[in-house]
Design brief:
Largest sheet of chain A: 5 strands, mixed, barrel
CATH superfamily of the largest domain in chain A: Bira Bifunctional Protein, Domain 2
Number of helices of chain A: 12
Strand order of the largest sheet of chain A: 9-10-13-11-12
Oligomer: homodimer
Strand content of chain A: 25-35%
Largest interface: A-B, 52 and 52 residues
CATH architecture of the largest domain in chain A: 2-Layer Sandwich
Chain lengths: 426, 426
């Protein structure tokens, strides 16, 4: 993409009314815009990152048999009454239509998917089945100060699994755990992400959260470094030992919950009457699991974890572009430029344009800073703030060596790469 | 995809409480599920079609310079007050948060995009700019009976253009018109879709709708067959002659509005103070255009236009799969099957599986009806109802000719294609 055409621009000033680092930085770099507290617009760069995270999640959900659907945000009151959650569910946005019909804005979708599956599943032969969506969710939060980490409107992947018995659920639950860590790995979060034991509800002793260490975290977890698992603060009083090794040595850390998985049992199949005929010809409740992960929250967490004083450092697979290509003309001496003749300047333009076209043709996504009348310093600062994994500089200095200068965003080392070697380099 | 794994199934009965043909058929074929009036879930097949329509729209919007963003559904009251539309906008869903803050669910996004662009555009040098999103929209409709044609929750592509003057807007407006017809062409609707003159509002004499002829249409249009344009019923009294040729001969038809484009002028830039510095150094209002198209409504319209008594006939580019592959075993005589030995049966399985794998490997999307214990008749009926452009049958009869039988969904003609020719055929 040509940066001269990108309608957003980076801003130097910290945004007012925004105290979270992820939102401050994503706003300054032109990834998101704040509409009102907890509600954001995804700008071109931000939408690209968000979509890449969604695509990774989609691939890993498909790999474990997930079938993608899209449920609505408007959900009718009666289904919430069926499960007794209309009044009790935390932070449900409610509204009424002109026909006085009441709705909740979907904050979770057990109430929609359970009656849906009831229409199609009748026999043990049709189980298990795994269904997910990536959808916009809404939560009527009193305070929304953590940027994309806790919004009033945010994206959520929710997978629901349907089984004939607990044993089958248990097996799939472990498969889902592994898929979650694959996703965090591809998003650059696995080093800092811990499987965390949390309250389980009526059906099982624990649920599990995936907690990523960062000072921006709203949660406190207790890590057992021997087992590389953690316990959430809410259960540390009842669960004083590591559920894996029985040890009592914990490291206390702040963390963000980037995913959570639950065994639901028959909590939802029962009120909706979701049953199946078992091998013996008898009716039985379907056993369910649910598996949540918020792409927008994952995006915010990546920013909290991967940055330095100059800006974001995107992991390669989710970066908006693989490389920032900077065309640097010597702005400081127009007289010298004229003396040297226009030929050289034209050369920089031509070579930069060709590198851009060639890289794009080879499937390397490039943000090409082709802007005129912008100083080299500003271009370098913008590239660092936006945080693509590679920076490629084309200038008189690099062309004198028949090269471009390449620098990784996460390293201070620059190297010269010959013009004819660039395509192979990437 | 293996049809045995698809959790949805076709249903024979017409759904209760659903009078529109598109919803009845899409529900019966397992593309959508009705959650409540005007609110639907997109099931795996339906989501695939919807995503393909969105991808076509995206490609054509990008081709005319559109930059994609994603604005929120929760929009704060104050921006609607700025434009005096909080009370006057038709069918706005309103709700309040726990902090008593009021919101409207986005039914259109001029109120969000105008202040957004104000943060980034200051000079004539930065204009024009074209920004779009594909997003879920909400309308507080009193009645919602037309299936996906008029929902309470539905998908919408909205493009907004920002210009330094009307001349520049006029130019882009014509470019957008052409892009719209490209989209309808790729979706199989262009033959029946007419550029239709409608009320223009304060800024220009007309706005334009794109109306597709179908008896399911809620609109009435008057077509000038000489010019292949139409006039909407709401202005036919003021506009008694064709705006193009001046003729008075019209054909009256029912139609669905599958798109609409408006010249907004300074209607929104004025209240938000969206101005730019012109070439002469003076401040001037930005001139805007807006361009709407609903992917879910386009999907419904395609179903209304492309079907026969047996089901849907999807145009190739948006079909959930290019082909239905039917493995047909002779179910009627298990004794004969045993007499013939299992070898032949195995052969059908093996060859069908191989065709499926080979086609997928060559990028041909296939819905493989690998289900056992389903009659040939049911498989044929399902394939017709679901409506993929091609049907491929593998049976003892076809294998006797070393072939499969191929039939286009939109033709009654069957042909035998040799096994080794299948890949080349597609």
């Amino acid at each position: 993409m040509l940066q001269s055409k990108l309608f957003t621009k980076t801003v130097k000033e910290l945004p007012k009314d925004e105290i979270s680092f992820n939102a401050q930085t994503l706003i300054r770099a032109g990834f998101i815009d704040k509409v009102t507290a907890g509600v954001y617009t995804f700008l071109p760069l931000g939408l690209k990152v968000h979509n890449k995270i969604c695509d990774i999640i989609r691939e890993e959900m498909n790999a474990i048999g997930g079938q993608e659907i899209l449920m609505p945000a408007l959900t009718p009151k009666n289904v919430w009454q069926t499960t007794d959650r209309w009044d009790s569910f935390d932070a449900l946005f409610k509204l009424a239509g002109v026909d006085k019909k009441e709705y909740a804005l979907g904050a979770t979708h057990e109430e929609i998917i359970t009656p849906l599956v009831k229409k199609y599943i009748f026999s043990y032969k049709e189980l298990p089945v795994y269904i997910y969506q990536i959808q916009t969710k809404f939560r009527n939060e009193l305070r929304a100060k953590a940027g994309l980490i806790r919004g009033r409107e945010f994206s959520m992947k929710d997978l629901y699994s349907f089984h004939k018995d607990e044993e089958d659920l248990d097996k799939y639950y472990e498969i889902a755990k592994k898929a979650y860590f694959k996703i965090y790995d591809r998003c650059g979060l696995s080093d800092k992400t811990y499987l965390t034991f949390a309250t389980g509800g009526a059906f099982s002793k624990y649920s599990h959260e995936f907690q990523t260490l960062t000072s921006a975290g709203e949660d406190t977890i207790y890590i057992c470094d021997d087992c590389k698992i953690a316990i959430n603060e809410e259960i540390i009083k009842e669960q004083e030992t590591c559920p894996k090794c029985g040890g009592k040595k914990f490291r206390k850390e702040k963390a963000v919950e980037v995913g959570n998985i639950f065994k639901l049992g028959a909590r939802f199949s029962k009120p909706f009457g979701l049953q199946f005929i078992n091998e013996g010809g008898k009716k039985q409740d379907v056993i369910m699991g649910c598996y949540g992960m918020g792409p927008s929250r994952v995006m915010a967490t990546i920013v909290e974890v991967h940055h330095d004083g100059r800006g974001i450092i995107w992991p390669e697979e989710i970066a908006p572009f693989v490389a920032s290509l900077l065309k640097i003309k010597n702005q400081k001496s127009p007289a010298a430029r004229r003396a040297a003749g226009q030929a050289k300047i034209k050369n920089i333009d031509e070579i930069s344009n060709k590198i851009y076209t060639d890289l794009q043709a080879h499937g390397v996504e490039v943000l090409y800073d082709d802007r005129e009348n912008i100083s080299a310093g500003e271009k370098f600062a913008d590239a660092d703030l936006i945080g693509c994994p590679y920076r490629i500089v084309v200038s008189e200095k690099t062309l004198a060596k028949d090269s471009v200068e390449v620098k990784r965003r996460d390293s201070e080392k620059c190297e010269f790469v010959k013009l004819k070697e660039i395509i192979n380099y990437f």
